[in-house]
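Input.
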Amino acid sequence: MCWHCDNPGKTRDDYLTEEVRPLIRKYGWMVQTVERGYAQPGFGYTVGLTDAGIPELVVTGLRERRSGQLLNYFAQRMVRSGPPEPGEVLPAEVGWPAFEVVSLSSPSAHLLTAVLLYGPDFRALQLVYEDEHGNWPWDREFRGGTGGQPVLGARGRG
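Output.
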């Protein structure tokens, strides 16, 4: 269940004050997940990387736990080494498939918690993953993700 559902008398500002900002202070970022809906797969994204001067990260079509693991892994890597470039393919690593980095042209359309914290002007990168056969969501043969893997930006160099 979501924080807002568990705290019906509280506001979005309460959420930022009680949940989001403390996690960002403690870890440098937090992961916000959005549950899968009837017509859309779930997704997850970071909030807080903007404070470090780097783009937020997004992944679609994975279950909440897997989204969190992935986003925490790559957020930590980005804080240490800097962000990847749009269009860059990150090779498969143990436990992870290959990813192509896609820049979101309108991150504020999808990342509500980041909008609440930063306003509409922040950057975000989507980590788009290949399936177990090496196919990408833009390939006809792609089979992956829980309910699909929407790509929220345009492929290529940003």
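The radius of gyration is 15 Å.
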